[in-house]
Amino acid sequence: MNATRTAAAGLTTGWFIAVAAQAVAQPAEPERFGLGRPATEAEIAVLDIDVGPDGAGLPVGQGRAADGAPVWAQACAVCHGAAGEGGTAGPVVGRGQGRPTVGSYWPYATTLWDYINRAMPRNRPGTLTSHEVYGLVAWILAANEIIGEADVMDAETLPAVLMPARDQFVPDDRRGGPEVR
Amino acid sequence: MSKNSPPTSRLSRRELIAGTLGAVAAAPLAAQQQAVETTRRPGRGPNELDQRSPFVTPRRDPSPTSSRTPLQDLQGTITPADLHFERHHGGVPEIDPDRYELLVHGMVDRPTVFTLADLKRFPAVSRICFLECSGNLRRGSAETLPQMVCGLTSQTEWTGVMLSTVLNEVGAHRGATWFLAEGQDAAVMTRSVPIDKAYDDAMIVYAQNGDALMPGNGYPARLLLPGWEGNASVKWLRRIELSDRSFMTREETSRYSEPVGEEGQIRQFSFVMDARSIITEPAYPTTLEPGWHEIRGLAWSGRGLITRVEVSVDGGANWDDAELQAPVLPKAHARFRHPWHWEGGRAEIMSRATDETGYVQPPWEALRTARGPRTRYHQNPVTSWTVDDDGRVLFGVERLRS
Predict the structure, then answer these.
(1) How far is CA B43 from its chain centroid?
(2) Chain B residues close to A174, C-beta within 8 Å
């Protein structure tokens, strides 16, 4: 792609030289184009909502399963079932093979926080408070018997939760060539 | 496919007599009449926006989460923008371009906000490539259209700026190994992408077949990762964050990953779309007449060029090389064609693609053997169409059993 652009720039340069012998050749491409404006810390903070597997990005707040239970009943059960068994949306609770759940298929507990915070509930995403999200995450993890009912989830404890499926994840080993993988 | 009836013919007495005296069959007569009729009154004048003929009604097939390209209705390799497949996770946002911005931050020297106008001022590049959802296979019934078998693939001439140009502009750190791409839809879609892809061929695109992106395809700007599963080409792109680790988002952990093998392993970050093909005609619901037909279809590989497409008309016992329409482009749909004389009698037609790495599109059994029974994404098996004694063409469901 860059080669094509350079070739086009070269043609243009040639034309200039042919038409106006004194013309100075344009640089092929500058170091920088000087486009865009500096982003402020404040505006980055508004959009930078991701939570990493190391817990980076987790906000202040906390919750236990009991805190999440009423939120689950009110905001989640309609699609995922009262006990997380699934409904119009997939199951969240359980370890059964073949039905991906938090207990059987999620490698990081932090992903739960990130996803619920950014995209749930479906009909009003992004409206839950940090405390509500911590409570929901605790409720889901406890329902999957990954943490205890009394365990408090916060920015310290959540990244330390070891998910049952963590070690099942392997990198893609497909490389093309004759072998089917 | 047309649901519209042709306009009622209005014939002059002279044309009627001429037709009757000609004593020709009904269909040629109708054509003859129309060939004259349209010359007897002026047609519409120039307009602002052309529309398809009322007799041409290709339609995507929408479900609650996606809409599928009508592969059986298209020729060549470019998908009209309004027929490009859609897959989104929180609906299509309506974005005012004057209030659109892209934030690039994280491991960069200069966290920067770009307007749409900024993105368009960078050196532009156009590239033709396919975009395919990695969940692109339905095994359904014998009465399945190509659109339903694998209509979650489409091809576009995209225009935009190379992501590497933008990363150079913000001073990307050498230690950055991944970047997060985030959309501004209601799913706030996020995927982690290895930084090598940014320096290889990733783009931020704002045009689709020469026009602005369609809303369902990310207007006003989206990420484009040629050859990689469509979900990672995040639409309605609002933010790129550089990091030294992946972000382990939901769409790259519990989704868009696939169980492989017998020991419960789950393959992750399986971005590249393997080589694949499908015959788009003849296909269900066609009924063939004996005689010459052209078998036509599409073949593509996320790893580069398609080098060969073979066609069988006897269920895979014998294979012939199909013609590939030039130019064949890397990571792009290639059109293949193969003449076939159907004598009558049962037949099963199938295609098999090979790419420049030597990868050959596998039969279903080979995929199942390699990955185990619970495989779900990245299913690219050889598919077939069966022809019965009456010439009826049906989807070859038996090829995808087990």
Answers:
(1) 35
(2) 270, 272, 274
